[in-house]
Amino acid sequence: EMSSLNPFLLRKVPLSFKNGVMDLYAEIKGDEGRVQGYVKPLVKDLEVMGNESDFKGLKHLGVELSAGLAKVIFRRGDDKTVATKINFAYDGNHVSWKMAEVLGNALEHGFSQPIEPGIENQFQMKYKTERK
């Protein structure tokens, strides 16, 4: 439930949720000191704007209006979901990911190809078997 994040969010960023449910899917694979994976958040029935009496100032109002506009842009019409896929890699020093790819995935979900819930089994895991 997205509204359960409000106490935390209001301490960190001026943003609050009125409604919405998020499912989060992820796969991570480590190999030879490198980690790669993806995180796939899917949000349904998202309402960003809280009550005007809850706004902590002009910045809070601006962030909530921006988030509301983003919801309108990225929301898929038929099932009213907002989703993206965030591919990332970690090499021991820093995490790399591409904002353009994240936004592109969200736009694609909203207008053409939906992001399906669930794990994609993107990383074929190799299992070592014990010798007898």
Can you tell me about this structure?
- This protein is α+β, with helices and mostly antiparallel strands and 132 residues long.
- The chain is 28% helix and 28% strand.
- It contains 3 helices and 5 strands; from the N terminus they run H-E-E-H-E-E-E-H.
- It has helices at 6-12, 58-74, 99-111; strands at residues 19-31, 34-47, 81-83, 86-90, 95-96.
- Strands 1, 2, 3, 4 and 5 form a 5-stranded antiparallel β-sheet that branches.
- A hairpin with a 4-residue loop joins strand 4 and strand 5 (95-96).
- The longest helix has 17 residues, at 58-74.
- It is globular.
- The mean pLDDT is 80.
Main attributes?
single chain; 132 residues; alpha+beta; 5-stranded antiparallel β-sheet
Class per helix and strand makeup:
alpha+beta
- The DSSP helix count reads 3
The secondary-structure element order is: HEEHEEEH
Strand tally: 5
Largest sheet properties? 5 strands, antiparallel
Q: Cα-atom Rg, whole angstroms?
A: 18 Å
On the 0 to 100 scale, the average pLDDT is 80
Shape annotation: globular
State the helical fraction.
Answer: 25-40%
Uncertain residue ranges: none
From the N-terminal CA to the C-terminal CA, the straight-line distance is 49 Å
Strand content: 25-35%
